[in-house]
Write a structure and sequence with these properties.
Elements (H helix, E strand, L loop, with lengths): L3 H9 L9 H5 L4 E5 L2 E4 L4 E4 L2 H4 L8 H13 L12 H13 L6 E5 L2 H18 L7 E5 L8 H6 L3 H4 L9 E4 L4 H4 L6 H19 L4 E6 L15 H11 L3 E5 L23 E4 L11 E5 L1 H14 L12 H16 L2 H18 L6 E7 L2 E6 L15 H11 L2 E2 L1 E3 L3 E4 L7 H18 L1
Parallel strand pairs: 3-13, 5-6, 5-7, 7-8, 8-9
Antiparallel strand pairs: 1-2, 2-3, 4-10, 9-10, 11-12, 12-15, 14-15
Helix pairs in contact: 4-13, 5-13, 6-12, 10-11, 14-16, 15-16
The structure holds pyridoxal-5'-phosphate (PLP).
Length: about 450
């Protein structure tokens, strides 16, 4: 029986990434407030937030400094755009801060409102750059199967998940997908991780050669794949991939929308994985999700080409009304200040061994095939048979059942592609709360048996 608010919800709202039929009878979980890593629903029940919202509320809930930064900026100047030469202090200071933090040489910053818009912008900038450089045929973008890069037409095309393409008539022309670095599922019998990485780099090279290197503009990758099931690549994967990209002059876009800002214990995920992208997309933890904001971090060579093209055309013809929104920029700036002042990334590093050990212990559970983990993010793959690694019928959604039992146990986790349960708590989770999270998840797994 739906409550009054649940009934009003299903009569009016279309929920993203939701079974639109099922929710009509179950209704949504209506959350009312949050404090630290705890959420409370409208009946007052408490839930441990095991997903940082959607991989984003890094500083947890109820952070008064962020609230204050937003309200102060709202009072002072709630909005001005930055088109045609206007600007404001928060956008300037945030761009400066991102440049200073950048793990690779970055020349300029372009603001968006989301990760999808950042990756969409990346794709446009690559095309724009290659037109400026006089190579109009070099336009294809290679992504990876199981990647998640967003939902706009371009970024959903980069996403390598069938559910994002089916019946949306995607991907668009010019986007290709290469093999995902998922050793547990895709390694040949007896193949070492090193050999697996070598084979994946060879797969990429074969794809570039089949397409024609003169037509391949860029490659995009998350350091650790998130929504594709938390896929952690072998250690030497990125250096091997990068050697291929260099050989064929293919631009490398790093999607740091989940891994950026401490998730792997380093400021950017690429620093934990020996990955050196040319340009970077960020969003989510940039503002700890207190405001919607993303950014494209642009290297000098790309900026010079953009400058050239805009000289020719009279203007750089791209931008969102809310690019560099002053309230979002002020909140992001405060978020970055808190990360630094409170040594959040160092404190994440100290918590990783405990998180990793609790995660690894889940592999003893009869339902768990692989417990993948990097930093404070994990993907628990559910299998019907541990030996053969066979999965349950994906339509039965076993991970979704675990998630439902977890919710009953007062824990929020998420099920994603590949019948995996994902865990991505706020970075500020305490050691006692990490134990509580895994205790509750284990009870949920036991109840699913
Ligand atoms: N890139 C990655 C790696 C993501 O995980 C996401 C969202 O989960 C996106 C891009 C898209 O970001 P948004 O949902 O803010 O558009």
């Amino acid at each position: 029986m739906l409550t009054n608010m649940q009934a009003r919800d299903v009569e009016t709202l279309v929920h993203p990434y939701t079974n639109l039929e099922a929710i009509r009878s179950t209704g949504p979980l209506i959350l009312e407030r949050g404090q630290g890593v705890w959420l409370h629903d409208s009946d007052g029940k408490a839930y441990l937030e095991g997903m940082a919202g959607l991989w984003c509320t890094a500083l947890g809930y109820g952070n008064e400094e962020l609230v204050e930064a937003a309200s102060e900026q709202m009072r002072k100047l709630p909005f001005t755009h930055i088109f045609g030469g206007k600007s404001h202090d928060p956008a300037i200071e945030l761009a400066e801060k991102l440049k200073e933090m950048a793990p690779v040489p970055i020349s300029k910053v372009f603001f968006t409102c989301s990760g999808s818009e950042a990756n969409d912008t990346q794709m446009k900038l690559v095309w724009y750059m290659n037109n400026a450089l006089g190579r109009p045929r070099k336009k294809k973008i290679i992504s990876r199967m199981r990647a998640y890069h967003g939902v706009t037409i371009a970024s959903a095309s980069l996403t390598g998940l069938a559910g994002n393409h089916n019946d949306f008539d995607l991907p668009i022309a010019g986007v290709r997908h290469t093999t995902a670095p998922h050793y547990y599922r895709l390694a040949e019998p007896g193949e070492s991780e090193e050999d697996f990485a070598t084979r994946l780099a060879a797969d990429l090279e074969a794809l570039i050669l089949a397409e024609g290197p003169e037509t391949v503009a860029a490659f995009i990758a998350e350091p650790v794949m998130g929504a594709g099931g938390v896929i952690v690549p072998p250690k030497t994967y990125f250096p091997k991939i990068e050697a291929v990209l260099k050989k064929y002059d293919v631009f490398f876009i790093g999607d740091e929308v989940i891994c950026g800002f401490g998730r792997l214990g380093t400021p950017f995920g690429c620093q934990a994985l020996d990955m050196k992208p040319n340009a970077i997309s960020v969003a989510k933890a940039l503002s700890s999700a207190y405001q919607p904001i993303g950014a494209v971090m642009i290297p000098e060579e790309m900026y010079q080409a953009m400058l050239e093209e805009s000289r020719k055309l009279g203007s750089f013809g791209h931008g969102f009304t809310y690019s560099g929104h002053p309230v979002a920029a002020a909140v992001a700036l405060k978020t970055l200040e808190i990360y630094e002042r409170e040594s959040i990334f160092e404190r994440v590093r100290a918590k990783i061994p405990q998180f990793a050990a609790r995660c690894a212990a889940l592999e003893d559970h009869p339902l768990v095939g692989e417990a993948r983990q990097a930093g404070l993010v994990a993907g628990i793959e559910i299998v019907a048979d541990k030996k053969t690694r066979h999965q349950f019928d994906p339509k039965l959604g076993f991970a979704a059942k675990v998630v439902a039992f977890a919710q009953d146990e007062g824990l929020i986790v998420r099920s994603v592609f590949g019948d995996a349960v994902t865990i991505c708590p706020p970075l500020v989770i305490s050691p006692a709360e990490i134990d509580e999270l895994f205790d509750r998840l284990t009870r949920a797994l036991d109840r699913t048996l």
